[in-house]
Model the fold of this input.
Amino acid sequence: MRVASFNLNNLFSRYDFTAEVDSMPPDGTHNSAPVEIVTTVDPADPDRVKFRTFKGRLIKGKPEAERKKLAGRITALNPDVLTVQEVEDVTTLAAFAREELKDLGYRHVVLVEGNDSRLIDVGILSRLPIGGVTSWRHAVHQPTDADPVFSRDLLQVEILAADRSRRVLTVFNTHLKSKFCDFREDPVACAEANSALRQKQAETAARIMAAQTRPGDRYLICGDMNDAPDSTPLAPLAAHPTLQLVDGLQHAVPDRAAPADTPPAPDRPWSDRFKAAHQPADYQLLDQIWLSPAAAGALTSAGIGRRTHLGGDGSDHDPVWVDLTL
Done:
């Protein structure tokens, strides 16, 4: 079984059209009327139209050319189970599986709406049947906290054998707090706050996984962790004494050479390239797959679907995968 993880970089619905309205919704920031905005038609309910804005900006669908690039990269990997991040909603993910990925046989689609203000969620596509699905979108870090700790959910999904006779694997999928800081924010304070939240999310995920699993269970947690595997914020996962998770990508081999860069990309696993102005590019393994000891015992290989352009192909992340004999 091949399990892959891929940040699809804002896979928003392409069912867009332009219209004139008298005013923006109450939470909008535009006050002029009429104003030209972009809305979305839900293909499952064509009479329903929703407004999509974030910080006063319109949210538009991912262009067809970019969707085809994503589909090509996924097809090349051919995973049995694909965990994804940065998807708008289940309708968008199902349409992507049905149309762009129609030859891969992803009959089983999971996405639970999360809490993120950017409207991005995590989801799972699977050829194998799916059993129980649990969303931890309402989980808090401390019992007295008023707000959920996960903006993009921690999704727990049981993967069943083809005949549904048994559970072969439990997959946890998440997308931890990003490192992004708005230019209007204090960069040091923002970075510290982001890291602190990322650590709280890792602590909560580890606590949930420890409570939901038993010794000897085969499970994994994957997703865009937005930090290095050996970073302090991820230590609650990486060094949890009960879980004893194994880094499934520590020996991952890319499927092709990295694009030429100055200085060259490092000869170690990485899935994200960030280039600040007037600085050399920073390469990090933000996309990760951590295995339980039982699942690690079934690990046969691991890889990275390397991009062909420095900026990425359809996404600024590279997909990662593990092959398991179950």
Summary: The chain has five helices and 20 strands. The mean pLDDT is 90. Residues 16-57 form one domain. The two ends are 7 Å apart (CA to CA).
